[in-house]
Amino acid sequence: MKKLVLLACSALLFASCGQTTAPVVEVKSLAEMTEDFNAQVKALYEDSTLTREEISAKYDELLNASYEAHKADSLGMTQFVSLMLDAWDYQTLQQKYAEADTLTQNNARVQHYMEVLGNYQKVLPGAQYIDIVGPEVRTNEEISVAKVLAEGKPVLLDFFASWCPPCKRAIKNEFPELVKQAEGKMNILGIDVWEDKREDIDKAMTELPITWRVLVAGGRQNSPADTWGVTSIPSLVLLSADGTILARGHALEEIQEELDKILK
After folding, report:
1. Half-sphere exposure of 27 (CA within 13 A, CB side)
2. 8 A C-beta contact, residue 188 and residue 123
3. Which of 129, 186, 229, 236 could be stapled to 182 by a disulfide with Cβ–Cβ 3.0 to 4.6 Å?
4. Over the range 130-162, which residues count as b (16 or more CB within 10 Å of their CB) and which as e?
5. Are the C-beta atoms of residues 255 and 248 closer than 8 Å to each other?
6. d(CA 78, CA 30)
7. How far apart are alpha carbons 79 and 260 in whole angstroms?
8. Neighbours of 106 (CB within 10 A)
9. How far is CA 151 from the centre of its chain?
10. pLDDT by 10s per residue, the chain, length 264
């Protein structure tokens, strides 16, 4: 699970007590609130007595506690985004959103991710694929998921971008062996998403060992990644030959069980 420490964007007021004159209000700035939270996170990750799993669990606890303490301010709104992407299951998310402050409910980023995560529920294993159409990066001819499936083999979709370091590491280190194993058994289709400039993916194709077809899906506006419920990349989707979703994950190891059934 990826862990993101996000910046807040407002201030919180704390009133002092036990005074006979008008209470003195201490204004804690955005920077101070963020610094407090980040210091706690830093201390957690530097605790050598904790395992990776324990750090992950304690981070979730820390993030949840921070959100609960700041529900009505912008720090809470920021923590809500992190939790909705990394920690809460969809049922919990729906409940938390219903209970959230209007500051959070009306935030454009929160609303966007609510829609995308709702879409994700529609394309879980067992569901049918949603088609994506666009130019193939090398030939510029129209290609689609449907056309690749029409070749009669399972298909691995790799949602990626030229600027994404984890995407490039996987393409360089893990995909070459997969390509060998998949020959004659499975097709791979790259779905290039969230690119600001077409020339960026064109350049990446000369630098990365990509031998499979790549569909250029454009920038962030109206991205097919939203329809597929993709909130981070790389994002992998394994399809059967009839277009049924078999597995989803962010790394090959997460879908390895279903891959092995195809590649054996």
Report:
1. 4
2. no
3. 186
4. bebebbbbeeeeebebeebbeeebbbbbbbbbb
5. yes
6. 12
7. 38
8. 11
9. 30
10. 444 333 333 323 223 333 334 444 345 676 787 788 889 999 999 999 999 899 989 999 999 999 998 999 888 999 999 999 989 999 999 999 999 999 999 999 999 999 999 999 999 999 999 999 999 999 999 999 999 999 999 999 999 999 999 999 999 999 999 999 999 999 999 999 999 899 999 999 999 999 999 999 999 999 999 999 999 999 999 999 999 999 999 999 999 999 999 998
Q: How far is CA 176 from CA 52, 109, 117, 251, in A?
A: 29, 36, 31, 14
The pTM assigned to this predicted structure is 0.83
Cis peptide bond prior to 166, omega within 30° of 0: no
> Amino acid identity of 2?
K
Nearest to 149 by CA among 161, 157, 159: 157
Positive/negative CA dihedral, 121, 125, 127, 133? positive
